Recover the amino acids of this structure.
């Protein structure tokens, strides 16, 4: 099957033909897509979020399959960046380890959160509490800090100016590039965000 040219993914009125593509396959259906496609706008990049659909196939193996399918469909370049983004709160470490191994073999990059993506959102405002190991803790923290939190309707304005702080906090917590996921509460989402910010500045 002939692959589709990558330029088909670009909005000709907005992105240039040489824009760098960031393909992010996610476990979540709404939150990650809102965050990445809603915040990062620049002619030098294009972010495509492959989120979980109505079939609710959110397990890491399905996230990996979505990224595989996308790569097989489009003619990407070496500058394009492919990412797996999922949480560890619902999946066993053995299962996650195998998915990470396969991802690295395929030269996909990992942006995993412990316990969930909400930790990344909370890092925009504060460091996580190491004793809080459940996703509901961080959803509660966000509601307390922001006065409300709805994962299907993010208020993106409250995060935009805090992104450098979130990257800084996350990086200090878990700087080891060899880690597949944070062993304590935190998020490796900073890895893809940092590269996106650099691509925008160049």
């Amino acid at each position: 099957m002939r692959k589709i040219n990558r330029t088909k993914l670009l909005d000709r009125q907005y992105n240039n033909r040489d824009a760098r593509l960031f393909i992010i396959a996610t476990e979540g259906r709404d939150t990650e897509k809102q965050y990445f496609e809603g915040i990062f706008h620049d002619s030098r990049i294009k972010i495509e979020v492959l989120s979980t659909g109505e079939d609710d196939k959110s397990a890491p193996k399905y996230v990996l399959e979505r990224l595989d399918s996308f790569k097989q469909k489009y003619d990407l370049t070496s500058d394009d960046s492919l990412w797996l983004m999922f949480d560890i709160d619902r999946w066993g470490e053995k299962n996650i380890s195998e998915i990470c191994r396969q991802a690295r073999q395929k030269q996909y990059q990992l942006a995993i959160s412990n316990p969930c993506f909400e930790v990344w959102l909370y890092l925009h405002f504060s460091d996580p509490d190491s004793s809080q190991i459940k996703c509901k803790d961080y959803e509660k923290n966000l509601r307390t800090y922001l006065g409300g939190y709805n994962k299907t309707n993010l208020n993106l304005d409250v995060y935009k100016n805090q992104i450098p702080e979130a990257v800084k906090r996350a990086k200090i917590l878990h700087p080891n590039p060899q880690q597949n996921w944070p062993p304590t509460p935190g998020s490796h989402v900073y890895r893809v965000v940092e590269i996106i910010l650099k691509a925008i500045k160049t």
The helical segments are 31-39, 60-73, 93-105, 117-122, 135-146, 157-160, 163-173, 189-201.
